[in-house]
Write a structure and sequence with these properties.
By secondary structure, the chain is α+β, with helices and mostly antiparallel strands. 38% of the residues lie in helices and 25% in strands. 50% of the residues are buried.
Length: 392
C-alpha cells in the first residue's frame, strides 16, 4: 500500500475528521470475520433496558472503524425499542476492530432484528461478588442466564483474552444455565498492565461467584434505567457521547446499580470512590464499567493520546452525576422479565492488531519521508504547505 496515500487519508482524518478515505484503506487491508453478539434485555409491559455485548473492540481511534460503536448501538437500540441500552466491553482485545461505518451498521442492524424476542425469565438471584487476590468477579443470574463481570481494580484492568469468556460460559452451562453474558469492567488503569498473570485468579473468582449465585434461590425482580449526558465533560476529557447509563436491579431488599460510562477506562482508585458513593445512596453490591470507546482517543497529546475517565474530570461532579442518574433509574423500577439471545453476524470486515501496527509504521515512514524531503529545503513552513497540498 502506498505510504503517502495512507498518510494523506490519516491527515484528512486528523485535521478535518473525514473518515471515509482512511476507512477505505482499512476495508482493503481487512479480512472478513464472524462477529458474536449477546443481548440481555429486561422487559416490563414495555421494553425497560438492554445490555448489548458485541465481541468487537471499539477502536482504533476517533471516528474510525468501531470507535463509536458503543454509542451508535446504544442510540439505535433506544430509538427502536424506546428504552435505555448500554454496551459494556466484551472479553477480547484489539484483534477485532471494525474497518468502517458500513460494518458498524451491519452489527447494529442485526442487533435490532434479533432483539425482537419475548423475555420470559421472571426470577433473578441477588448480586454476588467473589475475590481471588486482586481478581474480582461479580455475578447475577437472570432466568437461565448469568451476567458476569471482571475487574482487577485497583490494578490495571485492560483487555482480557477471549478464552477467558469461553471458559466461564462453559462453566455456567455445566451448572445448568443456558448461557452467560461475560464482560470486562475496564475500570482501572495505573500504567502497569499485568493482566496475563491474573488469568487463573480471574477464573477462580468467576467459578466461586457462579456457584454462590446458583446456590441462592431466584426471586422476582425489578429493573429501572436512565442515562445522563454531562455537558461539562467532553470527548477530550474522556467522556463519550453515550454518557452515563444506570441500570438498577432490585431483588427483594437488595438494590444493585450497574453504572456504564462511555469512556476508555478510568484512573485507578476512582472505581472504589464511585462504589462508596453508591453504597451511601442505599445501593448494595454495585459495579462500574466503561465501554472502552476509542472515540476519545487521538484527541489530546500525551503518551496515551486520551484521558481515562476521571483523569481530568472533576470527581465531585462525576459522583454527583452518577448519584443523580442512579436515583432517576431507581424511580423507574418496575417488575420485569429477562431474556437473552446469542447470535453471529457473518462476514463483517475487521482489521486486526497486526495490520493496525503495519498502518502505523507506514504513516510513520511517510512522516519521516516528508520531513527529509521538505524540511531541509523549506523548513517548517514547507512541511505545513505539503500537508495542505495533501489535504486539498
Amino acid at each position: 500500500m502506498p505510504a503517502l496515500s495512507l498518510f494523506r487519508a490519516f491527515i484528512l482524518n486528523w485535521v478535518t475528521d473525514q473518515n471515509e478515505p482512511l476507512e477505505k484503506h482499512l476495508e482493503e487491508m481487512g479480512e472478513d470475520a464472524d462477529i458474536e453478539v449477546t443481548v440481555l434485555k429486561f422487559d416490563a409491559s414495555e421494553p425497560k433496558a438492554a445490555i448489548i455485548v458485541p465481541l468487537v473492540h471499539p477502536g482504533p481511534f476517533k471516528n474510525i472503524g468501531s470507535s463509536l460503536l458503543p454509542s451508535l448501538l446504544k442510540k439505535a437500540y433506544e430509538k427502536e425499542f424506546g428504552c435505555e441500552a448500554s454496551v459494556p466491553l466484551g472479553i477480547l482485545g484489539h484483534e477485532l476492530d471494525l474497518a468502517s461505518q458500513a460494518q458498524n451498521h451491519k452489527i447494529i442492524s442485526q442487533v435490532i432484528t434479533s432483539a425482537r424476542f419475548e423475555a420470559s425469565g421472571d426470577l433473578a438471584s441477588p448480586f454476588v461478588r467473589s475475590n481471588d487476590g486482586f481478581a474480582t468477579a461479580s455475578c447475577q443470574i437472570f432466568g437461565d442466564t448469568a451476567f458476569l463481570s471482571f475487574s482487577l481494580a485497583p490494578k490495571t484492568t485492560e483487555d482480557l483474552p477471549q478464552e477467558l469468556g469461553r471458559i466461564v460460559t462453559k462453566e455456567a452451562k455445566k451448572y445448568g444455565l443456558k448461557t452467560a453474558v461475560v464482560v470486562n469492567t475496564h475500570n482501572s488503569i495505573n500504567n502497569v498492565v499485568d493482566t496475563e498473570e491474573h488469568l487463573v485468579a480471574l477464573q477462580s473468582a468467576a467459578s466461586k461467584c457462579l456457584q454462590e449465585a446458583i446456590s441462592l434461590m431466584g426471586k422476582p425482580f425489578m429493573v429501572g434505567a436512565a442515562t445522563a449526558f454531562p455537558s461539562e465533560f467532553t470527548l477530550k476529557d474522556g467522556m463519550g457521547t453515550g454518557g452515563i447509563t444506570a441500570i438498577i436491579v432490585q431483588v427483594e431488599k437488595q438494590k444493585t446499580a450497574y453504572i456504564i460510562i462511555d469512556g476508555n477506562n478510568m484512573i485507578s482508585g476512582l472505581r472504589e470512590k464511585l462504589l462508596a458513593a453508591l453504597i451511601s445512596l442505599g445501593f448494595d453490591g454495585s459495579e462500574v464499567f466503561t465501554t472502552d470507546t476509542h472515540a476519545v482517543s487521538a484527541l489530546v497529546t500525551g503518551r496515551r493520546g486520551y484521558h481515562p475517565v476521571g483523569e481530568v474530570m472533576d470527581h465531585d461532579l462525576l459522583v454527583r452525576y452518577i448519584g443523580e442518574v442512579a436515583r432517576k433509574a431507581e424511580l423507574k423500577l418496575d417488575a420485569c422479565k429477562a431474556g437473552c439471545i446469542h447470535f453471529t453476524v457473518p462476514k463483517v470486515r475487521v482489521i486486526g492488531e497486526e495490520r493496525l501496527h503495519a498502518i502505523s509504521m507506514l504513516v510513520d515512514k511517510a512522516i519521516v519521508k516528508a520531513k527529509r524531503i521538505v524540511a531541509p529545503l523549506f523548513g517548517l513552513e514547507g512541511l505545513i504547505l505539503l500537508l495542505l497540498l495533501l489535504l486539498f
